[in-house]
Amino acid sequence: MEIKDSSAQVLQQLVALIDMLDDEHYARPLPILSGNTIGKHIRHIIELYDQLLNGYESGIVNYDDRKRDQRIETESSYAINKLMQIMSECESKSDKPIQLIVDYSVDDHMNEKVNSSYKRELAYNIEHTIHHMAIIKMAVENEFEEILLDKSFGVAPSTLRYNATCAQ
């Protein structure tokens, strides 16, 4: 399976989840998320993918320089549309060098350039998404008992493969 397909598969799982939530549940502050919402986690995922796709042409990506789109946090249908656009755009891109701009300082704002590539950053976004999906899964299982998520939701493919070999 190509990395583009893996990305689409993970994002499709998010679409399926969001489709099961009404806007009230999607945007409800949850104690298990320290008062944050499922919508905020989805927004964060979408905005990192957007930064990668927006920086593709210039070859410069800065995940810190993202715009926080509040509509993604509160309107589930808007979030689904954004995810569908991301899947389509990711499908159309090929690998190329990327300069990643990072700044891990708190006070100094010391931007540093890191050599990367589109596929490497797509892999990062997949891993980042799965991490947030694991957090979202805990919230859904804790707050919305009526929603049943697939056992693979929020689980890394390597863990799924490992678990399958242990079960044999």
Tell me the layout of helices and strands.
Blueprint: H1 3-20, H2 23-26, H3 38-54, E1 60-61, H4 70-74, H5 76-92, E2 97-102, E3 112-117, H6 118-143, H7 157-167
Parallel strand pairs: 1-2
Antiparallel strand pairs: 2-3
Helix pairs in contact: 1-5, 1-6, 3-5, 3-6
What is the compact description of this entry?
The protein has 168 residues and is mainly alpha-helical. The chain has helices at 3-20, 23-26, 38-54, 70-74, 76-92, 118-143, 157-167; strands at 60-61, 97-102, 112-117. It starts with a helix and ends with a helix.
Give a structural overview.
This protein is mostly helical. The chain has a single domain, classed as Up-down Bundle (Four Helix Bundle (Hemerythrin (Met), subunit A)). The protein has seven helices and three strands. A three-stranded mixed β-sheet has the order 1-2-3. The model has no long low-confidence stretch (mean pLDDT 95).
Helical proportion, percent range: 55-70%
> Which overall shape is indicated by the principal axes computed on the Cα atoms?
globular
| Domain count | 1
**N-C termini distance:** 23 Å
Mean pLDDT: 95
CATH architecture: Up-down Bundle
CATH H level, superfamily name: dinb family like domain
Please identify the top-level CATH class: Mainly Alpha
CATH topology: the name is Four Helix Bundle (Hemerythrin (Met), subunit A)
